[in-house]
Every structure is written in structure tokens, then in C-alpha cells.
Amino acid sequence: MALRIRQFLIRPAPCGDSDKMTDEIFRGDGYQSEFEAHVVSVEGDEVKLDCTAFYPGGGGQVCDTGEIRGQRVTEVCYKGDDIVHKVPGNDLKVGEKVWCSVDWDRRFDLMQGHTGEHLLFCSLKRQCEDLQITKIFISPESKYVIVNHDIEWSQIGAALKFANQAIKDNLPVTKSIMDRDDPELEKVRIKLDRIAEDEQISVVAIGDIDLSACSGVHVMETAELEMLTVVRKVSAGKDGVTIEFKVGSEAKDAANATSMIGMEIVDCIGCKASDAPKAVANMKKELEADRKALKEATKAILDSCPEESVGSVPVQLCKVPGGDRNIMTEHAEAVKSRGGVAVYMAVGETVSVMVASGTSKVDCKRMFSEVLAPLGGRGGGKPDFAQGGIQDASKADEAMAALGDAVRSALL
User: Fold this and answer.
1) How many structural domains are present in the chain?
2) Mean pLDDT in the chain?
3) Same structural domain, 235 and 147
4) CB distance 45 to 90 below 8 Å
5) How far is 369 from 377, CA to CA, in rounded Å?
6) What is the pLDDT of residues 340-387, one digit of tens each?
7) pLDDT tens digit string along 213-233?
8) Across the beta sheet with 201-206, what order do the strands follow?
9) Looking at residue 50, which CATH number applies to its domain?
10) Helix axis angle, 325-337 to 276-304, nearest 10°
11) Is residue 282, in this structure, part of any structural domain at all?
């Protein structure tokens, strides 16, 4: 409730003359969510006001939404030097004095997210000095930063420890304006090539741990972030690596959920929580070795499987215990390319069936519907290649015999 009260206590300067048509209340006070303004122009759904607290988006943060005289504002953006509010189907008139409100819960979530991004990146950079930001995205649904290369989870953990200590310390978050020739600018995270020569350089400081050029809206104290956590790390292709994060109550919920998932995994593995990463790494290594062995075994079995000639067409029928599907597909395609027919089964708890045909006499798709369906089999594909399976592994021999008979009958 204190945060909500603050936005009414801090009032903006009254709307008045400015170099821009729209006075930007949000630049001086991110907590101001309700204000009075005059309608300057209306062009269809696009409305301009003489002043606004609606943030039009920027720096990776999406725009605000809300209402103008009770009518929904769905989008806000710059149009030249002015700010345009999209109000679908509005009946607003030029010169009208209107009461406006920004969706406060959404605004505060974005303020938390943008400040959280600053804090997260400066913390990550302490762990990896050459880390650079490629892209930022802050919305109510998703918050992430894309960095130029991967970073270890141990480094992310250390960064989060630093960031959450900064939240506990309740550092001030302040904004100032700096000139291009200010010697202190070298301490600021900034990309000057993206800032016009005549544009003011707005700098956001988090205590004495971070200085970053940014014109977005932020909280006033780090304690308002409540908590910061990383929920996902994934490749962003040529852009680098995406690090998704959450702040506030969502961060707490995510941390609790991840903790429960982690404990369930630990319970399944049967080890100490601290040993889980090493245990999973070992299991992954063993699984990769097993997959390699399975591929080799599948290839050896198929290579040694005899062929029979039916009406001058080579036919290969083969069952492979737990067979690797990729190797089986390669072999089946090779048989098909020679004008032959291949019927392969990978037998385990269930049975996977693959039929390939290089002759129009054998319709693989029809084989499944006419031969395997009566045995409870399902599948599909094309006349020259089809695949499916049978749930009851005890019917593998019966299914293979039926398929073999069907192929022979079609070829003779």
C-alpha cells in the first residue's frame, strides 16, 4: 500500500509550454499514474495530449496502457517529437480537459523489471567482465536480457547473490542528466552511437554499484524489487544467450517452484542436493555412451540381417532389440533406393514398426491399415514409407510374420 500512496504524494510539474508538444511527466516521476491533461489533437484512434504520464516504451521496455476519460489506451508511442496515445473508437475532442490514468500494477511491474535488468546485468558483469548486452526486453509477460556469450550457472548464482544483497541493502535508484563531455561518462554503461548529438544523456544509478544510460522508468529503491532470480538460460543464436529473469513476487514464486522441482529430482536420483549437478552430468554422459552403443549395435544387426529375393525384389525383414530409429531409417532408405522392401521392428516395452518400399507393388501405408490394425497397431505415412507401432510387445513375432506374408503376396 505504501508504494501506491507514494505515487499520489509525488506530484508532477503542471503541464505547460515545452519544446515538445507533449510534456513528459514520466521522466520526472515514474510513480505518477493519474493526471489531468488537455487534448491537443485527435486523428482517428490517435490522441495527443499536452502532457502525459504514459511511458511510450523504449530501452527494451514496452509501453504503458490505461485510460483517458474512461476510454481504453491500448498503445503509446512516439510520433516524431510527440507522444501518441492509441484510443480505439474514442469520442475525444480537441481542447477537452480529461482525467487520465495509467494501469498502475502494470507500470510498477515494468519499473521493477527495468530496474531488475540493470541490477542483474551489472551483477553478471562483475562475474564476467567481457559480457555485453545484445538486447533487452521488459514486458509483464516476459523479462529477459540477451548477452553476447554464454555464462556458467555458478557465475549466475554468484551474480544473483550479489544482486539480492543489493536489494536487502535497499540502495537508492536515482536519475541524472550528463553532458557528452562529462569525464564521469566513462564510468557509465552507454552506447553513444545510439544517442543523438542534441539528445540529453539520462543516467540511472543504483547506489554506487551501477551507472547506466537509460531514459526508462525505474523504482526509487532496490528494496522495491523484493527479489531477483533467473529462471532460464537458452541460446539466442547469433545474438548470444538469452537470460530470462523474474522480479518481485513472481521471483519468489519461481524460486519456490524451482526448489520443489530440484528436490524432486534429488529424491529420484537418490543423492545429496549438493551432489545433484555432478550426478546428472554423469547420468548424461552414461546416456550418451548408451546411445552410441545402441546405434552401433543397430547398424551391426541390420548389416548382418539376410535378404531374400521375392520376384527379383530384395526384401529385408529384421527385428532389433530397442533399435535406434535414425539408423533404422537410414538402412530402410538404402534398401528402398535399390528398389527393395525393408520391414524393421524396434522391440522394447512396445514395438516400433518401419516399412520402406522401392516398388509400387508394395504400398507401405496400406500395410499398416490392413495388416497391423487388426493387431492393435497404429501408424501412417506414404506408399513408399510408413511407420507406427504396436503397444503389445508380445505380438511382435505375429506382426512380423503377417507383414512378411503381405509383402510376399504383393510381390508375387
Assistant:
1) 3
2) 90
3) yes
4) yes
5) 8
6) 999 999 999 899 999 999 999 999 998 888 888 888 888 889 999 999
7) 888 899 999 999 999 999 999
8) 173-178, 201-206, 210-213
9) 2.40.30.130
10) 20
11) no
Q: What is the largest CA-CA distance in the chain?
A: 94
Which residues lie closer than 8 Å to 1 by C-beta, 6 or more apart?
A: none
Contact 143, 137 (CB under 8 A): yes
In this structure, the answer to whether residues 264 and 375 fall within a common structural domain is no
Backbone angles phi, psi at 111, to 5 degrees: -65, -45
Residue 159 Ramachandran class (φ > 0 left, ψ -120 to 50 alpha, else beta):
alpha
Say what the pLDDT of residue 223 is: 97
Q: What CATH number corresponds to the domain at position 247?
A: 3.30.980.10
- Residue 277 placed within a domain: no
Mention every residue, 6+ apart, whose C-beta is less than 8 A from residue 68. 47, 49, 85, 87, 90, 92, 98, 100
Give CA–CA dist 206/196, Å, rounded.
25
The CA distance from 145 to 236, in Å, is 10
Residue 37 is predicted with a pLDDT of 96
The predicted pLDDT at position 195 comes to 67
Q: Residues with Cβ < 8 Å from 387, sequence gap 6 or more?
A: 352, 353, 354, 355, 379, 381
Same-domain check for residues 149 and 262: yes
CA distance 245 to 144: 6
Euclidean distance between CA atoms 110 and 150, whole angstroms: 26
User: Residue 81's pLDDT is what?
Assistant: 85
Q: Considering the entire predicted model, what is its pTM? A: 0.74
| CA atoms within 13 Å, Cβ hemisphere of 70 | 1
Alpha carbon distance 227, 248 (integer Å): 5
Distance, CA of 84 to CA of 45 (rounded, Å)? 9
Handedness of CA 387, 390, 391, 395 (dihedral sign): negative
